[in-house]
Design a protein that fits this description.
It is a single chain. The chain is of the alpha/beta class. It has a domain of 181 residues: Rossmann fold. It is 29% helix and 18% strand. Strands 3-2-1-4-5-6-7-8 form an 8-stranded mixed beta sheet, with helices on both faces. The longest helix has 15 residues.
């Protein structure tokens, strides 16, 4: 049976998309939230209206509640709106709402008319055909306020491995981030199953993401002696080696030590 494509649902908000599978768990998105609390610091600080939208919060609002709590130290007046296309999920989430700072509403890629400074859309596009990704990006990014950012990607069921893009108002990727629980990681390419939807089928020879993961694995092997001091030191050394070899690795040891690696995307010639 052909996979159902995104649609405009009937109703007042004309919500764009199809309901998520709904799977979620406490702390599943802690890695992207931790990164957001640092990367979104400037957009949130500058924003006249510090509005954040969480697209597709699932069967439980728990990860939206957690994001609200994690972003409040960045901006105490942050407002977070969790969106879902399933009315029963929105109704169930109302018990967790904390007006005016934390709200839940019916909506999808059209963001229910909101113009946020930050959008988080994790584990949403995984269920779509790759051909639908660009239009979903455009719909969400087109609603960003000036200087805003969209974070879209995938993580595993318990939040130990995650990958995500950041996009600006043009709906074009600017960075790609890998984040992992290092003690349980055998090699960087173990993150491949958690690539964003736009990359999951492109992890093949000749594609940038395949070349990056292969180079990261090779760097990981070359700095294996650093593993004597623990996986964190090995990851830091591998990230530094990737940068020396010409990959556009961003940030530095302060973020690398958390099991993160962010690169400019697309990476361009090396």
């Amino acid at each position: 049976m052909a996979r159902r494509q995104p649609r405009l649902a009937a109703g007042r908000a004309r919500a764009l998309g199809v309901p998520t599978r709904g799977t979620t768990a406490p702390n599943r998105l802690r890695r992207v939230d931790r990164w957001l609390a640092a990367a979104a610091w400037s957009p949130l600080r500058r924003a006249a209206d510090p509005l954040v939208v969480d697209v597709g919060f699932g069967a439980s609002p728990v990860t939206t509640v957690e994001m609200y709590e994690r972003l409040r130290p960045v901006r105490s007046d942050v407002r977070v709106v969790g969106l879902e296309l399933a009315p029963e999920r929105v109704a169930a989430a109302q018990a967790a709402a904390r007006p005016p700072g934390l709200l839940f509403a019916l909506g999808g890629f059209e963001l229910a008319g909101h113009r946020p400074v930050v959008i988080r859309a994790m584990n949403v596009l995984r269920q779509y055909d790759e051909r639908a990704v660009g239009s979903a990006w455009a719909a969400m990014a087109g609603r960003l306020s000036t200087g805003g950012m969209l974070v879209e990607g995938t993580c595993d069921e318990i939040g130990r491995r995650a990958c995500w893009f950041t996009l600006g108002a043009g709906g074009v990727p600017a960075t790609l981030t890998f984040s992992a629980h290092l003690p349980s990681l055998l090699r960087p390419s173990d993150l491949a199953p958690r690539l964003p939807k736009a990359l999951i089928a492109r992890n093949v020879p000749g594609e940038d993401v395949h070349a990056l993961l292969a180079a990261f694995d090779l760097a990981w092997e070359r700095v294996a002696p650093r593993g004597t001091f623990g996986p964190r030191q090995r990851w830091i050394a591998a990230a530094a080696l990737l940068r020396r070899e010409g990959w556009p690795v961003l940030e530095g040891p302060r973020r690398w030590r958390l099991g993160e690696l962010t690169v400019a995307w697309p990476p361009g010639p090396r």
